[in-house]
Amino acid sequence: MHAERNDGPVPGGQTFYDNIILLLILGIVVPTLVYTVWGLVEIMNVPKLPIVP
Amino acid sequence: MANFDFRTCSISGLKIDKASENLVRWNLIAAFATLAVGGLFALLVALTRWPSVHLLPLEFYYRFLTLHGIDALLAWIIFFEIALVHFTSAVLLGTRSYVPWLGWLAFALMLIGGGVINVIVLLGKADVMFTSYVPLKADPIYYLGVILFAVGALLGFIIFFINVILSKRDGGYKRSLPLGVFGLGAASIIAVLTLLHGAGIFVPTLLWSMNLIPNVDPSAYRLVFWGLGHSSQQINVCAMVSVWYMTSAFVVGGKPVNEKLSRTAFVLYILFINIASEHHLLVDPVLSTWHKIVNTSYMMHLAVLASMIHAFAIPASMEVALREQGYTRGLFEWVKKAPWSNPAFSGIAISILLFGFLGGITGVIFGTEQFNIIRHNTWAITGHFHGTVVAGTTIAFMGFTYLLIPYIFKRELIWKGFATIQPYLYGVGVAILSIGMMSAGAFGIPRRHYDVTFSGAPFSFTFDPAVDMFMSMMGVGAVLAVLGGVLYILIAFGSVIFGKEVQ
Amino acid sequence: MSNHKDDMHAPGVFALSLVFLAVFIVIWFAHLKWLMDIWAVR
To answer: Any CB–CB contact under 8 A between C7 and chain B?
Structure first.
């Protein structure tokens, strides 16, 4: 289905892309930190309004 | 387990094992059925928002809109994607399905979860829209249904990893995965992230609906919900792009012009596309400008770069293949001579054009803070995502169905003439629908709104009269699209049941 | 190295990509003008 050349050493980039578990880990960790964790930290640090009777 | 029952498809040459074949078949059948239901609700809702028709009464509008979101956006698409998981991780590799029992468990959970959701919403106990934002509270069974469906989907995507890793161990494929399979791998990775967020938000919300915890912070809900909600759309993008590559390969013999570039684009999706979920929160007061701008205006464009790569790589692969078939006159003979009467090809071509120009571009625009503030909660947003998910992903899946029916169901298509026009009819319908919505939204017409004449409200407000034309345009587009959708469902089920058997 | 690269010949799509680039540049400058006119960016 694609032009496959089964000769020679595998380029480093190809080895990285072939590691599906590493991609899975990165694909979970990166967005979770940059979007979810950062966002939750901001939300939790919103100061509460004082209750004025 | 002893022998695995393989056959070789006489059309595609694929080596197909019985277990995978059955899993693909039944997930597709569930997909067709949920699209039919979602499409019916779409028609009813569209005829309600078409001012001259205004079909449904108030509560049924919101109820059916909730179900339209669930059935068309979640269920149809995810069932189809699980079918693609089985197709790519086993059939395309020519290896066996390693854990078919898990596939059936996943299928059952999705079916039961989807059924529970539909029933509880129809009973009127969950008129919360598919976003179910707290403090809107649905019956606990609604959240349970969503959790069941999500767990089933997660198991289904996990099967991709199990199949691919064990297949590599057993020598099922050498060196790297084919590109179409790699794309579904990207989709599966995003799916795991998506469904982890789903668990993270729906479990506490379920507990809150049962009064076991006092409250769920609405800002936090929105943040984590969209980690589920938008990321699930990015599963769709990866699956759709994989379908584009695979269809180019199956129909015209297209090969990726540059594997490195195409795979890099998928990896950019894996790393960066989900943080664009932030665009749902651009007008939320709580999050900082930094969080908003870094996640959208900056990093979103890395994912857009990836889309640009695919947008040129796939037509280029078609051009190379068609030139090899002899269509070398001038710059564009290959376009004229491409197999436009093949609904698999035309589906993909229409999907690429409409996703790119209607859905994708508006997504990048509306995902920018300065634009978002004037488009948020208007119908322009709805127009955008009908451009992506319906004109893009759904049409691509429809096109691919026309290949899966002979390859996997071993049936010829019925009504081939109608099949030829179906992608065009549906595509034109959705394009008109989407443009109508976006134009109306530019004048401020809100989304998820029953009556923009505000009849019976204490204050009166009239929109610019131009909106009536655009809302009617939406209605016309919707009717055409539903006609195209009905054709698809009839051809799909009809071929599976009555189509001539392929030897 | 084989003639692998020479096989990948897509002048039509390449031409389209140049058109796309030209349109993008036009829209880029138009959006800068829009930012100045509507959003008072200087």
So the answer is: yes
A10 vs B contacts (CB less than 8 Å): 175
> Nearest by CB to C11, which of B257, B331, B335?
B331
Please identify, among B174, B197, B232, the residue that sits at the C-terminal boundary of a domain.
B174
Residue B443 lies in a domain: yes
How near does any CA of chain C get to the CA of A3, in Å? 9
- CA dihedral B481→B482→B486→B492, nearest 10 degrees, is 50
For B461-485, the pLDDT digits (tens) are 899 999 999 999 999 999 999 999 9
Chain B neighbors of A29, CB-CB under 8 A: none
Number of structural domains (chain B) is: 2
Residue B415 belongs to domain spanning: 378-455+462-503
pLDDT tens digit string along B390-429?
Answer: 999 999 999 999 999 999 999 999 999 999 999 999 999 9
Interface of A with C (CB under 8 A): 3, 5
Q: Write down which chains contact chain A via at least 3 CB pairs under 8 A.
A: B, C
Q: Which residues contact B338 (CB under 8 A, 6 or more apart)?
A: B252, B318, B322, B345, B349
Amino acid at position B475, single letter: G
Q: What is the 3-state secondary structure (H, E, C) of B191-223?
A: HHHHHHHHHHHHHHHHHHHCCCCCCCCHHHHHH
CATH number at residue B121: 1.20.120
Report yes or no on B255 lying in a domain.
no
What are the residue ranges of helices labelled H in B255-355?
Answer: 259-272, 289-293, 300-324, 333-336, 343-354
Q: Is C32 on the interface with B (CB under 8 A)?
A: no
Whether B469 maps to a domain, the answer reads yes
Among B146, B174, B202, where does a domain finish? B174
> pTM of the prediction?
0.94
Indicate whether B416 belongs to any domain.
Answer: yes
CB contact under 8 A, B175 and A10: yes
From C7, C15, C17, residue closest to B331, measured CB to CB: C15
* A2 to chain C, closest Cα gap in Å: 12
Q: Do A28 and B189 touch (CB under 8 A)?
A: yes
